[in-house]
Fold:
Amino acid sequence: MTDDQKGKGMNDNSIDKTVSITSAVCCLAFVFMTMASPDQVKDLFDKIFKFFISNFGWAYMTCVAGFVVFCLAVAFSRFGNIRLGKDDEKPEFSLSAWFAMLFAAGMGIGLVFWGVAEPIYHFAGPPFADPKTPAAASEAMRTVVFHWGLHPWACYATVALVLAYFQFRKGYPGLISATLTPLIGEKAAQGTTGKIIDSLAVVTTLFGVATSLGLGALQVTTGLDLLYGIGKGTAISISVIAVVTILYITSAVTGINKGIRILSNTNMIMAFGLMLLVLVLGPTRYILNSLIESIGNYLQNILWLSFFVDASGGVAKHTGYDWSGAWTVFYWAWWLTWAPFVGVFIARISRGRKIREFVLGALLAPTLLCAIWFNILGGSAIFLELNGTPGIADATFKDVTTAIFTLYNNFSMSAFLSLISMIIVSIFFITSADSATFVVGMMTSGGSLEPKTGLKVFWGLVCSSIAAMLLVAGGLKAVQTVSFVVSFPFMILMLFMACSFIKAISAETETARKPKKRKSTSRSTETAAAVEAAPSLSN
Structure:
């Protein structure tokens, strides 16, 4: 591949019609099919969901654990000091701005949606302990930290690391297909095989982000109903999606250095402010103790948790349903649907960082912040349930979107906290969708770092349409099912990307070593010749 070929896409923003049309047809076919037969689509989703959690849980658990090992092994290997760019390049964004953007894109709406709901679910229906006991509380926080810790961020970091290396160091276009060139060759990467790969990445990205937009719309609708009595229902949730769509398309048009960066920084400040408020208003001592305990519990059991698939069915019998499939395996599938989008976005903002700095920053810091978030919100809810203030668990099981608002009802500033949470969800909504339209624009314009505005607007509308149809087709269950359908093939693709990266970076380091050896040999030869010549000169 010539330098001109490699660089194509870095600044060229021409639309890749094949990838764009293929991806759009797949996504719009789902939209129209759901509009025509929502009940049939819902039944199909139920069957697909059961099929995946019954037959492929082991594959998801093994592969995602492998991505954690891959990231850490690369970071602490001889490749750790290699820069994701030229040797003299400096990072484009400050550390704080970089972290704010990757965190807002990588977790977003899910943090608020599940911040109280998931810990309460595991507390009231734990996989091993007796429900609503101190043992269940400890188990719940360990499980939450596991689900939102190293494993999801390793999925993102794997894609981002490979993309950033090939794009900024090797000069390839910012496309998933380009990263496989060392394995499948230039002809296949630039031909039909490459188009199929890039189309898969686009479809996975759109559906992955649409799932979170659906969750966000449900929670904003619940919050508005609790505060202002506007009512609930699919129509209102779709209206919320429509309003936010206008906002995030406006943000996407302004570009990554303005809209996305400013919104991400603003949301991080608000999220930290919310955490501090709940920490002060809630059971502070219990929260701090729970945080330390849950991190230690997580680290002590991470290996076992990484490969637990409930082979004997004991947990399913204890909980009454396939807990491992419905929670851990679903989460891994959900994170994988976000991997192409978040991976491309993190790669885009990580130019100039060394591999070790990149991996540790993308894995450890977000894991710690997620642990703090869930222990403050979820820990507060569990404390209330343990100490004579029940109601949160019952409300959560009845309607998961009410969990965080039910917690706030126990605080003196409940209305203010609810309002702040809805604003945070909305901004997460905007930044996630904003980043997604930018990334899909890149993918459908040959990897251009500045995709056309019209292209970003189009994909923003497609993403919102998918989110709306997911709500029509069954809400949360539809969201979960789509995660399985689109994540499995991409997970396999990620394994090949990791292999391609190792092959390419190993070849680079070997090539870098050889000239040094030849140079050293040349100098040794010159020195030996000078020594042999010295006696004759002295004579």
